[in-house]
Amino acid sequence: MYLFYKYKQGRKWVARLPHDGDLGAELEKFAREQGIKVGRVEVIGAVKEAVIGFYDQEKKEYLALKLARPLEILNCSGNLSLKDGDFKVHLHITLGDRDGRSFGGHLMPGTILFAGEAVIEELEGPELHRGYDPQTGLPLWEKEH
Ligand code: ZN
Q: Which pTM was predicted?
């Protein structure tokens, strides 16, 4: 295991997210306003359209898939930490269509809310920073520098 920190439960919020807001950006804005440096997030609701990513491990880049239609947020969960001195949310999302089919991936900018209900939990303990990891090409959590 590369990294292991212990946290205590901090503050908890239930939030109604704004219609027409960008899902990831709204959560980062909330984290910034409240000063949530480490935490976990859970969202259900619906989107007007979505952009989800799949990480190509060979090319070390995200392939984006745009879903330009209304979908249910069946599940969306992830975490909050810090990257480049700012608040960063990392979310994965599962979306469902009217026929019950589902799509999922790494949440990307351009996922526009119709309605969203979030539960946000702060974790109290060491700051958690993301930095470039050469093995994966991803901005992973790293030891405090
Ligand atoms: Zn991801």
A: 0.94
